[in-house]
Structure formats: C-alpha cells, structure tokens
Amino acid sequence: MPKMPPYMLALFEKAQAERKLCKEWLIRIMRASPVKTRSKDDLRAEAMRDLGVSKSSFDGAWIGAIEELGYHDWYEPLRKGRRPNRRRLN
Predict the structure, then answer these.
(1) Which residues, 6 or more positions from 30, have their beta carbon under 8 angstroms from its beta carbon?
(2) Per-residue pLDDT, 85
(3) 3-class DSSP state for residue 41?
(4) 2, 17, 21, 78: most buried, per Cβ within 10 A?
(5) Is the pTM of this model over 0.85?
(6) Structural domain tally of the chain?
C-alpha cells in the first residue's frame, strides 16, 4: 500500500473496519436465510442506522458477503409479492 498522510490512513482504516463489521453482519443474516427475504435497500438502511456504517462501506460488504458465500442470487432484486391489505381485519 502506498504511503499516505495520517488523516487519509485513518479514513482508510475506518472504512476497512466498517466493511469488515458489516460483512460479518450480512454473512450471519445470509446464512440464517439463504433465500433472499429482505431487499438490499432495507438491509442497507438497517446497517447504516444500527451499525453506523456508510453507504459505500455497506455496498462493499454486500459484494464481499455474497462472493464469500456464493449466494449470487442475492444480487437479484427481491421478488415483488402481493402487498398486504392493511384495511383487512384478518
């Protein structure tokens, strides 16, 4: 790795730590349900809120987790199902 100023090195290390934390979190979720049940946007919002990671750190972790597990169908959009009727009582 080329030599960089201390502030850039700190930013690089922070992003690297965010990606690692998020990738481990995503792997736990993916292993629990190999069939995709949540959208990438939903998971990204949760990771940003709960883990404090950036959007780009999440996106890097997303690719890393999918490639590590080989769950390439997670790249595909979540199937659109019938929306629940919120006006029904049962």
Answers:
(1) 65, 66, 69, 71, 74
(2) 45
(3) helix
(4) 21
(5) no
(6) 1
Query: What is the C-alpha separation between 64 and 5, in angstroms, rounded?
Result: 27
The two structure tokens encoding residue 25 = 């979190």
Structural domain of residue 37, as residue ranges? Answer: 22-75
Scanning the structure block, which residue is given the tokens 């959007």? 55
What is the secondary structure of 14-31 as a DSSP string?
Answer: HHHHHHHHHHHHHHHHHH
pLDDT in tens, 32-45: 998 999 999 999 99
Cβ count near 15 (within 10 Å): 15
The answer to whether residue 9 sits within a structural domain is no
Select from 65, 72, 71, 76 the least CA-distant residue to 39.
Answer: 76
Residue 43 is assigned to a structural domain of this protein:
yes
Q: Does residue 30 surpass a pLDDT of 60?
A: yes
Residue 69's nearest CA partner among 46, 41, 36, 40 is 36
